[in-house]
Amino acid sequence: GKGMAIRDTADDKPRPDLNSPFAEERQGHWLLMGAKKYAERNWEKGMPFSRCVASLKRHVMKYQQGKRDEDHLAAIMFNAMALIHYEEMIERGLLPAELNDMPCYQPVVRKSPRQSPRKPAKKGRKTRRG
Asked: For the chain, how are helix, strand and coil distributed in percent, rounded to 5?
């Protein structure tokens, strides 16, 4: 309207406002328990991907079995979040690529530097993305 501030429409921007507040609250409780047990933001230091995947799968299995002894869905959500975070931190060079200890079953396709907008991997670090 007239006299109102102008702002772009954000049609192509991420929409975290569409996340469930209930899922966020439960994940927040899960993170609180981890902060009390280990330390705040301890998980951000990184851990091998295989540990996150194993934990995620155990919690899926327990949820499928009907066990409600702990919040298995929040645990699944946490492990998936941690994996996403670690991938991004490795991509930025802030965590070591060796954290990604998952087997790679895809053929490695090498891209020429002109095709890839990413920076080349630092020496001594192997990536599984190719």
From this structure: 50, 0, 50
| pLDDT tens digit sequence for 29-38 | 999 999 999 9
Question: What's the pLDDT at 110?
Answer: 82
pLDDT digits (tens, 9 = 90+) for 65-89: 999 999 999 999 999 999 999 999 9
Residue 81 · residue 33 · CB < 8 Å = no
Question: What is the token pair recorded at 70?
Answer: 């702990």
Looking only at Cα atoms, what is the longest distance across the chain? 58
DSSP 3-state of 48: coil
Of 130, 127, 54, 60, the C-alpha closest to 95 is 127
75 contacts 59 by C-beta, under 8 angstroms: yes
